[in-house]
Amino acid sequence: FAVAWALHFVWNSPWLEDRFGNGPVGLALLLITKGLPVAAAAVLVWRSAMREEGAWLHALAAWHVPERELLRDDEWQRLGSPLERLRARREIGRRYGCRARRLKAMLQREQLRLVIKAGAYGRGPRTLRHEAAIRKVRARLDALETGAAPP
What we know:
Layout: H1 2-12, H2 24-64, H3 73-78, H4 82-96, H5 98-121, H6 125-146
């Protein structure tokens, strides 16, 4: 609340308006000067939220999805970080092509769905579809990585 109030106060304050000209360049500089604290606060809030969501996803996955064929150790480590998941998709795409990247994206999406549904409802009938999808996509991805014919 205090940060929101302070940012609103700075944005609406006339203190900085006299320091910049009335032309388009002055207006642009004023908006940048007032916008930088807002952007910095947004980045800090976003990073904090991502860390908390990552810890929550790790806890859910550790409790509800102990099987390593559904969620391997390296995938579990990346589970709570969208940027790390993106890096993994890009890396596999560079190594094995666009199809492997799409399969990795499908795998990650199904893993997230499994963890979230298992956290909400527990493992059972509602998560079976995601478990089957993970196994199917993983088999196709592993076949693509090894060069074998997909199942």
